[in-house]
Write a structure and sequence with these properties.
CBS domain Like; single chain; about 120 residues; alpha+beta; two-stranded antiparallel sheet
C-alpha cells in the first residue's frame, strides 16, 4: 500500500507528486536578515507611478478620527495614506489602527508626548 494515501470519506487518493518532490524543487529564498544592500543600492530610486493608483483616497494629517473612520466604513478600505499640506505621504492608517485597541493605544501615546 502507498504511504501517502489521502482518505476522504470512502475514497482514497494517491497524490500525483509526492510532497518530498515538491519541497525539493521549491525555490529557497533568502530571509530578510540575509539580504545585503550596498550603499549605492540604497541611493537608487524606483518609479512606481505606472503601478500606483493616480487618484487614491487619502486624508490630511489633521483629519478627524470620525472622518477617517467614515471613509474606512463607506469605502471598505484596507489602508489609507495620510498626507501633509504639500500632498506628500507622511503615514498610513490601517483597519487595526481604527479598531478600539489600536485607537486607544495611539491616543495614549499621543497624550504622553504632550505631557
Amino acid at each position: 500500500m502507498h504511504s501517502s494515501i489521502l482518505m476522504v470519506s470512502d475514497h482514497s487518493y494517491v497524490p500525483i507528486v509526492e510532497w518530498e518532490q515538491v519541497e525539493k524543487s521549491y525555490p529557497k529564498y533568502p530571509s530578510v536578515k540575509e539580504a545585503r544592500i550596498s550603499p549605492m543600492d540604497r541611493d537608487c530610486v524606483m518609479d512606481l507611478r505606472p503601478y500606483a493608483n493616480q487618484a487614491p483616497v487619502s486624508v490630511q494629517e489633521q483629519a478627524s478620527v470620525a472622518r477617517t473612520y467614515e471613509l474606512f466604513r463607506n469605502l471598505g478600505l484596507r489602508f489609507l495614506p495620510v498626507v501633509n499640506h504639500h500632498n506628500q505621504v507622511v503615514g498610513t492608517i490601517t483597519r487595526a489602527d481604527l479598531a478600539s485597541d489600536g485607537l486607544a493605544s495611539t491616543l495614549l501615546m499621543k497624550g504622553k508626548k504632550h505631557i
